[in-house]
Amino acid sequence: MDKRLYSIETPCYVVDEKRLTENLVILRDVANRAGCKILLAQKAFSMFSVYPLIGRYLDGTTASGLFEAKLGNEEMGKETHVFSAAYMEKEFDEIVKICDHISFNSFAQWQKYGKKALDAGRSCGIRINPQHSTQEHGIYDPCAEGSRLGVTIENFRPVLLEGIDGLHFHTLCEQNSDALIETVAAVEEKFGEFLPQMKWVNFGGGHHITREDYDREALIDCILRFKEKYHVEVYLEPGEAIALNAGYLVTSVLDIVHNGIDIALLDASAACHMPDVIEMPYRPPLWQGGEPNEKAYTYRLAGATCLAGDVIGDFSFAQPLSIGDKLVFMDMAIYSMVKNNTFNGMCLPSIAVLHESGELNIIRKFGYEDFKGRLS
C-alpha cells in the first residue's frame, strides 16, 4: 500500500490511476477481440476527472437519466446511451439532443417518446426481461418476480417494432461469464425471432470482466457467436469492472469504546460514505485487516453517526488500534461516491487521485455549503 495514503487528510476517496488503467487495458482488449463496444455505466462510477483517461479505452458512457447523460456527454464526449425505467416529460427534449441511443422500458414509453427520438435521428431500443434469474440478491435482480424492469415476452408487442433498432437486457450483478451465457440462451429462446431485424443488442452490465477469476475467453466466444448468428453490434455497459479494486477510502479512528467488543469509531460512515456495505450487505476489504479473531486484536469498525446500524464490520489487527490511526478500505471507487450522502450532517469525503507517477492530488474537497445547499 502506498505510504502517501497515510498522510492524507481524512476521510478521503482515492482513485489509483495505475489500477484503473490496468482495468481499462483489459476491457479494451476484450472489445477488440470480441468486436464489441464497451461503455462506462456511470451509475457505478462517475468521477469525471478521469473520464479523459477512460475515454482513451472505452467507446462512451451510458446513463440512467438526464443528469448522467449530460455528464457523460460533456466530460467524455463519445457515444452517449441512456436507459430509464420511465422518462420525465420535462427532460426528454434535452435527452434527445445529447443521446445517441435511447432505450425504453415499455412500449407505452416508446409510443409516447419514440417519434421525437426518431425525428432527431436517434437509435432507439426496447429493454427486454428474459425472466431468467442467475443471482440470489433479489434487490439487484431485474428478473425477479414482479420486476418493473424490461418487457417480458408476454407483454412484447411485435407490431410496434417499426423504428426500433435494438434490444437491451441487463440482468447481472457482479457475475462471471457463465451467468451471461445462460442469460443469452434465455434471450434467444424467448426473443430470438426478433433478433435478426435488429441493428444492435445491449448485453447490459454486471459483468465482472476485470476480476481475476473472470472467464474472458468465454465472454469473447459468446459475443462472437452472437454477432455471427444475428449480424448485430453488441454493447456491454459494465460499471464496476471499470474501477474494480481501483479505489480506496482512507479514514481515521476518532474514538474507541467497549460494549462486549472493542468498537472503533471512524470519521468514515457506512451509512453515508459506503452505503452498499449496508444495502448489499457486505464486509469491505481492509488493508492489513483480518477476519474477526484471526489476528490478536479484534474491533468492530463503525461510523460516528447516530444510526445504531452504522457498522462497517468486524476486523482483527496485529497491533491494537489507537485514536488517530488511519485505516484504508479497498475497492471503494465503485458505488461509493455515486451513492454517498450527508445524513447527520456528515461531511462528504474528499476525492483524490494517486497518479501512476506517484503524485497524490486532491481533486475536490467538500464542506458545510455542500451539506446546506442540498436542503433548501
Q: How would you sum up this structure, described in words?
A:
The chain has 11 helices and 16 strands. It has 376 residues and is α/β, with parallel strands linked by helices. The chain folds into 2 domains: 3-14 and 247-332 and 340-372, Lyase, Ornithine Decarboxylase, Chain A, domain 1; 35-243, TIM Barrel. The strands form 2 sheets. Strands 1, 10, 11, 12, 13, 14, 15 and 16 form an 8-stranded mixed sheet that branches. Strands 2-3-4-5-6-7-8-9 form an 8-stranded parallel beta barrel, surrounded by 5 helices. Helix 1 runs parallel beside helix 7 (216-230). The radius of gyration is 22 Å and the shape is elongated. It starts with 11 loop residues before the first strand and ends with a helix. It is an enzyme of class 4 (lyase). Its cofactor is pyridoxal 5'-phosphate. InterPro entries: Ala_racemase/Decarboxylase_C, De-COase2_C, Nsp_de-COase, PLP-binding_barrel. Residues 12-332 form the Orn/DAP/Arg decarboxylase 2 C-terminal domain.
Outline of the structure:
The protein has helices at residues 17-34, 51-55, 66-75, 89-98, 107-119, 177-191, 216-230, 240-243, 270-273, 276-279, 368-372, and strands spanning 12-16, 37-41, 60-63, 79-84, 101-104, 123-127, 164-168, 200-202, 233-236, 247-258, 262-266, 297-303, 311-317, 326-330, 350-354, 360-364. With 376 residues, the chain is α/β, with parallel strands linked by helices.
